[in-house]
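Hi R.,

As promised on Friday, here is the backbone we talked about, encoded as structure tokens. Could you run it through your design pipeline when you get a chance and send me back a sequence?
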């Protein structure tokens, strides 16, 4: 009854204020709206956006909407309850279907560049010995330069590294380091934005404005193409690539909010022999 009253109030407010309904679609106001939603208690967010049209596999809520999100707004992207994005949801589904992460045997896990929505989920897995790492994020448990990882060979059963390598000038060195610290029977889950046909980089580009123009973001140092897989294999990995079409039924791609064609999950194992 409370949910119905709140929804009714919101619907009436938007119908009466057409100007408000229009401006919340604009980029700047959309960002403010998302910030405002994030400040609400999670139970209230669940109540406000409850529905049947969408389902988030991370917070396990049925919702009526995923919001647009991004510098260039992507529709159906942001979960208003847990703040997951397309890549988080696709990675979680892929790990459930294609790996042994959720088996009961103890595992050591290195989470590089920890996203809070993923961090919270992984920490709740009782069989996981969780370690987060970042060069700049103070919330991370250890400070780490992934081009020179301070742990011995064959340390971790799993490595999670999503949307980090596009920020790293020496990405090949970082890949070799990830390969080195991964256990022989372990796996790494790696993701980067795939936005061009062939990887493009130019080390001479250092200004934030030019990086944003060329690479899409002022702290990116390259654009990756599908040949990202080749770089991983050259670093010693066996690589399996999963897109939404390979792990989600076609009828559920929109409902799960994993329709972004620039997102793929790279599951990497150490080569044998």
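Update: got your reply. Pasting your designed sequence below so it's all in one thread:
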């Amino acid at each position: 009854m409370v949910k119905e009253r709140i929804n009714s109030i919101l619907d009436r407010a938007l119908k009466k204020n057409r100007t408000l309904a229009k401006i919340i679609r604009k980029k700047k106001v959309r960002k403010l709206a998302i910030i405002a939603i994030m400040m609400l208690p999670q139970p209230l967010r669940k109540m406000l956006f409850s529905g049947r049209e969408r389902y988030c596999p991370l917070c396990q809520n049925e919702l009526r909407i995923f919001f647009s999100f991004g510098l260039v707004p992507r529709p159906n992207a942001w979960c208003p309850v847990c703040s997951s994005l397309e890549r988080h949801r696709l990675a979680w589904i892929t790990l459930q279907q294609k790996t042994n992460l959720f088996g009961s045997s103890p595992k050591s896990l290195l989470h590089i560049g920890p996203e809070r929505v993923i961090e919270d989920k992984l920490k709740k897995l009782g069989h996981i010995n969780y370690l987060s790492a970042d060069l700049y994020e103070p919330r991370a448990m250890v400070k780490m330069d992934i081009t020179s990882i301070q742990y011995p060979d064959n340390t971790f059963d799993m490595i999670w590294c999503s949307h980090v390598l596009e920020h790293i000038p020496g990405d090949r060195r970082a890949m070799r380091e990830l390969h080195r610290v991964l256990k022989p029977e372990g796996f790494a889950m790696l993701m980067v934005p795939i936005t061009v046909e062939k990887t493009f980089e130019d080390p001479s580009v250092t200004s934030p404005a030019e990086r944003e123009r060329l690479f899409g973001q002022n702290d990116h140092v390259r654009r990756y193409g599908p040949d990202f897989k080749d770089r991983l294999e050259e670093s010693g990995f066996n690589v399996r690539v999963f897109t939404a079409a390979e792990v989600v039924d076609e009828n559920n791609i929109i409902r799960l909010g994993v329709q972004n064609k620039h997102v793929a999950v790279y599951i990497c194992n150490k080569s044998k022999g």
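One thing I noticed while checking it: Residues 241 and 266 are 5 Å apart (CA to CA).

Thanks again,
M.
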